Structures are given as C-alpha cells and as structure tokens.
Amino acid sequence: MGKQIISNRAHGLFFASVTTMFVFGATVSVRSQQTPALPAPAPVTTLQYVAQDGLSVERLIEGAGSRRADLLAARQRLAIAEGKLIQAGSRPNPVFDTEYGSPRFLGGESEFDFSAGVSQTFELGGKRAKRKAVAELELLQVRSEVLALERQVAVEIRRKYTRAISAVRQLDVVERLLAADAELVRVTEARLKEGDVAPLDLNLVKVESDRLRVQRIQARNELETALIEIRALIGVDVSEPLTLAPQADRPPRLDLGLNELTETALRGRADLQAARIGERLGLARINLARSLAVPNVAASVRYSRTKGLIDLPITAGGGVAKDLDNELKFGVSLDIPIFNRNRGEIASASGESIQAIRNREFLEATIRRDVAVAYSQYRSTAEKLVLYATQILPRAESNLETVRAAYRAGEFSIFEIVNEQRRLNENVSNYNQILEEYYTALAALEAALGAPLPPTAFSPNSVIPDISSVPNQFNRDEFLRTLNRPRTERFGFLKTIDPKPLKEEKK
User: Fold this and answer.
1) Taking a C-beta distance cutoff of 8 angstroms, is the pair 253, 437 a contact?
2) pLDDT one-digit tens code per residue, 96-148
3) Which of 75, 253, 374, 438 would bridge with 445, disulfide CB 3.0–4.6 Å?
C-alpha cells in the first residue's frame, strides 16, 4: 500500500513539474516555491453590473429608439417621403406674363405696345394620379425599411445584452473559484510548514490560482467591452454608468416548429414587406413613365393694347392722329411627341420593376434559409444545454467528490484534485457559453422573423428539466454556494490525511 501511495505521489509530482515548466518556460526549483505570492487582486462584485433594478433588454431597446442618431435620421426619411407625397398631388401653377414696349425709350414717338396674358397647363394621361400612387408606395416602402432597421438594432442589442450577461456569469464563477483557491493556498501553505505536503504541491495550487486570475481578466474585459458596445448601441456616452437586469438561468422553451416560424417570417418581416412594395412601386413607375409620354395641353388668354401715331394727309387737314387698338386672344398649345416619347424612362422603369421582383424572390429564399439555420442552431444549442445540465456537470461534480474522497484515503495527490476542479471549471464555463449561445439563437430567430418572439411562442416550462425532479442534477447556485462554504466544510478533508505515508516518501 505504501509503495502504491509513493508511486501515485511521484506521478502527481511529475505532472506538476511538467505543468510548471510549461507555464514558466523553465524548471522551477523547489526553493523557489518559498517566495511569497503576489497579493491577490480585490474581488470584483458583479452587483455593479447586474441588479434587479437594472435595465432590461426591452428598456435598452426603447432607449435606443429615442436616442440613436442613425434611427432618428432614418425616421426623417418618413418626413421626406410625406413631403414628396404632398408635392406629387399638386397641380401645375398658372403662368402670368406681361409685356410693354415703346419707341420713346429710344427718343422716338410716344407710342406703346402693352400685353398681358395667363396660361394654364392641363396634365393629360392621369399623370397626377399616377404620380401620387408612386409617392404613396414610396412612403410605405420607407416605413417598412425604417421598421426593419429598428428591428435590426433591437436584435443587435439583444445579442450584446446576452454577451454581457454571459460575461457576468463567467466572472461570478471565476471570482468564487478564486476565493476557494485562495483558501486552498492558505491550507496548503500551512500543511507545507507541517511537512505534510511537498513544495511543488503549493506551486501547483498557486499556478492554478494565477490561471484563474487570467480568466478573471478575460471575463472582465469581455464584460466591459460588451457594456461599451451596449452604450454605443443605445446612443449614450461610453462613460455613462450602466446596470443591466439579470437574465433567467433557466431559459424558456420554444414551442413553435420550423413551418410555423417560416410562415410567420414570410408574412411579417418588414424588409420583405418593403421588397413586395418595391414590386408594386416598379409597376407604378412604369405607368407613370408611360403617362409622361402623353403631351400636356396649355390653354392661354391674352389681352393687348396698342397706341400708335398716324400722320394725316393734307387733304384730310394734316396733323397727327392717335390710333388705339385693344385685342383679346385665346390660344392652345400642345407638344407633338415625334422625337421624344419618353421611351428611355419607360425602359428604365421596366428594368427597376424586374429588379424588384428578383430582389423579392432572393429575399424570400434568404429568409427561409435564415429561419432554418436559426432554428437548427436553437435545437442544437437546446440539446447541448440539456446534456450539460443533466449529464456532464453532475458527473464532473461527482468526479471531483470522488477524487477528494480518494485523496482523503491517501490514494491521489493534490494534483488530481486541482485537475478535476479545473475540469469542472471548464465545464461550468462551457455551460455558461452554451447558455449564451441559446439566448443568441433566440435572438437569431427574432432576426429571421423580423419581430420579437411572442410569449405565446414559449412553453411554460424551461428547456432545462426541473432541478428538483432530476437526480444528481447540476445546480449552479448550489455549486457557487459550495465555493463559499467555510474552510472547515470545504477543505476539512485536508486535515484528515494521514501524514505517515508522506513521511515515508520523504525517507
């Protein structure tokens, strides 16, 4: 039995040495383990990032709608389109013109020629009605495009919110693991002074603590980056404080199938509505271009007054007589469509109409693909989430307890405990990542649908089975509470090891 303990002990020390060489790039002597460790950074509380009174994702989206400059600018397109609609319904204005001429301006006689007239253009071919139809469709299209942009921003906010919450979860776990490792370092240092453990054991524990500190730096950076991106998305200053509302650890289960989701997307997506309006708009522009080939009629009326001087003959007594003439004219003008029949505009509008049809067909195919991909991702992530929650994490936790029990019996070294704790930490990190992927998949489904998923789309039960009904179910809250137990509860087994095999090993 003693030989087996020594063999296992040497096996643990060998891998500890390899780990130390890999981390530091050179073999670390035993004496180097006596150097004091760097002071541990102060723990970061996640309450400054997530709280019950924080901003929910719905409030973030609402704030973005009233603050983001690009959304406010996009909504001005509605005012532009409404102004064009008003202008499209206007009739041509009448034209008034007048003329006055006299030779006396050049030193001649006091004769003059005065005229004034009014002309009115009458549009033929239904130009005004067809112009209004085009403007109305353009307004509808702009509304759909603005709505699609708002939905796109909302989905991006949901994704960044999910990323931030995932980083908070990871930071929370790492902080608690660091607290547990700090306790383990203190216990190992105390046992090293008593001669119960080897110096490399302490070095191994410290390496694990440093590795967790690196994870904490990474998690905090990801969290702060996500918060900066959220602030930018909602249109606030990057230095403004921001606290988020928590996200459910047991996410809801989607109760809609692929066919229902596809039909919903094809029926309600704003960008598809804009594409369909674009088809109607193409036909309306063709009709307008054809109507512009019809010439307009301009009617006019003109009054003229002319004053002239006539030299009378001697037989008539001689002298100068005035001659006043008044005249009223009516006229009609009509363009003759010989050279320009607007064929270029008609051809251009026809091309735009065919282009709109092809864009709509491509967008429908893209929507079907997006919904199918997002739904497949959702189902895959849901299966992984259930597998981690019901199989992987419970077994990883059980393995750690088994190794601890074997360590208490003197079978394993502390290397195996640290290694199993690392595996459990990795599995918990993977679980958090998959939980993020799950909510991201729901956001991708919302993006594919072009609308928020209604509450009726979800089952009242979570996608994760009830913890109380599954034996050995992994409980994240219980796992975190375990990390915060008193030292005598978490590391009491370190006191029960029999030091005799260790002393025999030293001999």
Assistant:
1) no
2) 999 999 888 887 778 889 999 999 999 999 999 999 999 999 999 999 999 99
3) 374
Domain with residue 39: its CATH number is 1.20.1600.10
Rounded Cα gap, residues 156 and 61, in angstroms: 10
Class of residue 107 by CB neighbours under 10 A (exposed 0-12, middle 13-18, buried 19+): exposed
Amino acid at 238: V
Q: Give residues with Cβ within 8 angstroms of 84, minimum separation 6.
A: 135, 138, 139
**β-sheet bridge partners, residue 310:** 321
Query: Rounded CA gap, 477 and 463, in Å?
Result: 18
Residue 478: per-residue pLDDT? 56
Q: What angle do CA 351, 352, 357 make, to 5 degrees?
A: 100
Q: What is the distance of C-alpha 204 from the center of its chain?
A: 42
Contacts of 120 (CB under 8 A, 6+ apart): 92, 94, 95, 298, 299, 300
10-32 core/surface letters (b: 16 or more CB in 10 A; e: else): eebbeebeebbeeeeeeebeeee
Reported pTM: 0.72
Total domain count for the chain?
1
Report d(CA 88, CA 294) in Å as an integer: 18
DSSP letters for 407-466: HHTTSS-HHHHHHHHHHHHHHHHHHHHHHHHHHHHHHHHHHHHTSPPPGGGEEEEESSPP
Residues of the domain holding 486: 2-506
Specify the amino acid at residue 505: E
